TrEMBL record:
It comes from the Bacteria. GO terms for cellular component: cytoplasm. Residues 27-211 form the RCC1-like domain. This is RCC1-like domain-containing protein. PANTHER family: REGULATOR OF CHROMOSOME CONDENSATION. It holds the Pfam family RCC1. It comes from Paenibacillus hemerocallicola. Keywords: Guanine-nucleotide releasing factor, Repeat, Signal.
Length: 544
C-alpha cells in the first residue's frame, strides 16, 4: 500500500487570502525557541513541532524533527504558553504552571538542573502570566508580585545578584505587575499604573538608563514613560507600547531593529513615529514586528533567512510591510523565524526552517505560508477467509485502517475504498494438472459494519465534524467513500476497522486455463472449491 503526502501549495506572494471558516478550536497564541515552536488553541490544547534534542517539544519524537504540529497529550485547560531557547512553559487554568525541556541553568524552576522530558508541574502557584528568556523565566502572580528563575549572569532575575537560581525568587521592589517581557538577558515589566521597569544586561543600552554599562540587578524605573500597556524585549533591545498606540524604543540597533532608519543605539526611550495605531509590538533577537489595529503587520531589522516576511533577505532599518493581512496575533520567538495567526484559525510561519520549525515540511521561506502539517494516506490490510465448497455462499474479512491527519488545521478529508475483481486459482478439475483461474465481480463485496473510531494521538473526535463512518456501500472497481472528516475539529491519528461480507455468486467466469482443459477463457461455470482473493485500495482526498 502506497503512502501519499498531500501538502498545500501556497502562493509565493500572499495577497489577502480568504479566511477559512473554523468549525473547531482556533489558534490563540504561539511562540518559538531555538528551532522549535509551540501553539495554543482555544480548547486549551498545546501543539509543538520542530527539533527536539532536549525534549522541548514535550514528548519523545524518537530523536528526529517533527515537521507538523503535534499535540502534547498531557496538557489541557491551558491559557498561556512561553518558549525559552530549548524549554517550554504552559499556564493552566487556576494558575498552575507546567514546564519541560532543558533545565541546565535552572530555568524550569524545579529546584535542580535536570532536563524534563515531559510537562512537569511547578510548585509556584497563583500564576497569571509566564514569559521566558533564552535561559530564564518570569512569572507574574495574582498578588502582583514577579518571580524569576534560571540564568542570572547579567542580573536578569532582578534579585540584586548575578547568581543563577534553580527555584523561583521574587524580583526586588516590584508590586502590582501587569505584564512582563523576557529578552535575551534582560527583563521588562509594566505595572497596573502604566509604569515601566527594566533590569539585566545593559551592554548596549537595553536598560534605557542613559548609557551602556554593567548589569543592572534590580528594576530600574523608566520615569519618562507613562500609560504603557505592554512591553517586548529582544537581545539588548527594548520596546514599550502606550495606550495611544505609540511605540517607544531603546537599546542596541546594529541591524536597524529599533526602526529609526539607522543603526545608532538609543540609550533612553525614544518615540517611534513611523507607525501609528499599533496594537502589539514583538521583538525578536535582532528584528522587530508591529501589528496594527487594522490587522496589518510590519517588520524591520535583521532579515536573515527572510524572517521579516517581505519576500527578501535584505535587512531593513525602517518598517516594511509583511505580505499578510488580518493578523490577530504574533508569536514571540527566540530564533530566526516568525509565527502569526490570522482570522479563521490560520497559522502562518516564515523565515529559516532549521529543524522543520516552520511546520509545513518544506524549506525556508521569506513570505508567510501556512503551518499545516501532513495528511498521510490511510493504510490497511485486508484478507478473506477461504471459501470452501459446498459453500454457504458467504465469507467475511476484517480490514484494519489507520488514518493520519496531522495538520494543525484540519481542512477535511474523505477516505474511499475500491476492490479488484475476485480471483481463484487452482488445479483444473477436468485435467487434474493445469492451472485454472476464475473471477467474479467485486460488487459481490459489501461493507457490513464498522468498528468504533479511536484516537491514537491528536485531538479528540468531534461527533459533528468527524471523523465518522459513512453509510455502507457495495464495493467495486470505482472507489466509494467509507469515512469522512469535515473541516475544523478532528486532527489526529485514528484507527478503526471495516467488516466486509462476500456474497459468493452461483457461477464464475474463466479467466485463464490450461490448453488441455475442458474450459476456455470467458466460460461461465459453476462454483469451484478453493480460496478466493482480491486487492483492496484505500484512497484519501483532502479539502486543501
Amino acid at each position: 500500500m502506497y503512502i501519499r503526502v498531500l501538502i498545500a501549495i501556497l502562493l509565493c506572494l500572499a495577497v489577502k487570502m480568504p479566511a477559512a471558516q473554523a468549525a473547531g478550536p482556533v489558534y490563540t497564541q504561539a511562540c518559538g525557541g531555538s528551532d522549535f515552536a509551540l501553539a495554543l488553541k482555544s480548547d486549551g490544547t498545546v501543539w509543538s513541532w520542530g527539533s527536539n534534542p532536549q525534549r522541548q517539544l514535550g514528548y519523545d519524537s524518537g530523536g528526529g524533527f517533527v515537521s507538523f504540529p503535534t499535540r502534547i497529550q498531557s496538557l489541557h485547560q491551558i491559557t498561556g504558553i512561553a518558549c525559552g531557547a530549548t524549554s517550554g512553559y504552559a499556564l493552566q487554568t487556576g494558575g498552575t504552571v507546567w514546564v519541560w525541556g532543558r533545565g541546565a541553568e535552572g530555568q524550569l524552576g524545579l529546584g535542580d538542573t535536570e532536563q524534563r522530558n515531559e510537562p512537569t508541574m511547578l510548585s509556584l502557584s497563583g500564576v497569571t502570566q509566564v514569559d521566558a528568556g533564552i535561559r530564564f523565566a518570569l512569572f507574574v502572580r495574582q498578588d502582583g508580585t514577579l518571580w524569576a528563575t534560571g540564568e542570572n549572569q547579567q542580573g536578569q532575575l532582578g534579585d540584586g545578584t548575578t547568581i543563577g537560581k534553580t527555584s523561583p525568587v521574587q524580583v526586588s521592589g516590584l508590586a502590582a505587575v501587569r505584564a512582563v517581557a523576557a529578552g535575551g538577558a534582560h527583563s521588562l515589566a509594566v505595572t497596573t499604573s502604566g509604569q515601566v521597569y527594566a533590569w539585566g544586561s545593559n551592554s548596549y543600552g537595553g536598560i534605557g538608563n542613559g548609557g551602556a554599562g554593567p548589569p543592572v540587578t534590580t528594576p530600574y524605573w523608566q520615569s519618562a514613560l507613562v500609560n504603557i500597556v505592554s512591553v517586548s524585549a529582544g537581545n539588548d533591545s527594548s520596546f514599550a507600547l502606550d495606550s495611544n498606540g505609540q511605540i517607544w524604543c531603546w537599546g542596541v540597533n546594529t541591524y536597524g531593529q529599533l526602526g529609526f532608519g539607522d543603526t545608532a543605539r538609543r540609550y533612553e526611550p525614544t518615540l517611534f513615529t513611523a507607525l501609528s495605531n499599533v496594537a502589539s509590538i514583538h521583538a525578536g533577537g535582532d528584528y522587530t514586528h508591529a501589528r496594527l489595529a487594522n490587522g496589518e503587520l510590519w517588520g524591520w531589522g535583521s532579515n536573515w533567512g527572510g524572517k521579516l516576511g517581505d519576500g527578501t533577505g535584505t535587512d531593513r532599518h525602517a518598517p516594511v510591510r509583511v505580505q499578510l493581512e488580518d493578523v490577530q496575533f504574533v508569536g514571540s520567538t527566540k530564533s530566526n523565524f516568525v509565527l502569526a495567526g490570522t482570522t479563521g484559525d490560520l497559522l502562518y510561519s516564515w523565515g529559516n526552517n532549521s529543524g522543520s520549525v516552520l511546520g509545513y515540511n518544506g524549506g525556508s521561506r521569506s513570505v508567510p505560508g501556512l503551518v499545516i502539517g501532513l495528511l498521510v494516506d490511510a493504510k490497511g490490510v485486508g484478507s478473506f477467509s477461504p471459501v470452501v465448497l459446498p459453500p454457504s455462499l458467504n465469507s467475511s474479512a476484517t480490514l484494519p485502517i489507520t488514518v493520519a491527519d496531522l495538520r494543525g488545521y484540519n481542512v477535511g478529508w474523505t477516505l474511499s475504498l475500491s476492490a479488484t475483481p475476485f480471483y481463484r486459482s487452482g488445479l483444473d478439475p477436468t485435467t487434474g494438472d493445469g492451472i485454472l483461474t476464475v473471477s467474479f465481480p467485486a460488487s459481490s463485496l459489501t461493507v457490513s459494519g464498522q468498528a468504533p473510531i479511536t484516537v491514537t494521538s491528536g485531538m479528540e473526535i468531534d461527533a459533528v465534524h468527524g471523523p465518522r463512518h459513512l453509510p455502507g456501500h457495495t464495493l467495486g472497481a470505482t472507489a466509494v467513500p467509507i469515512m469522512q472528516a469535515d473541516a475544523g475539529y478532528g486532527t489526529g491519528i485514528y484507527t478503526t476497522a471495516l467488516s466486509l461480507a462476500l456474497a459468493v455468486p452461483e457461477t464464475v467466469q474463466v479467466v485463464q486455463s490450461a490448453g488441455s482443459s475442458f474450459y476456455k477463457q470467458g466460460d461461465m461455470i459453476g462454483m469451484l472449491a478453493g480460496t478466493y482473493t482480491c486487492t483492496f485500495t484505500l484512497t484519501m482526498t483532502s479539502g486543501l
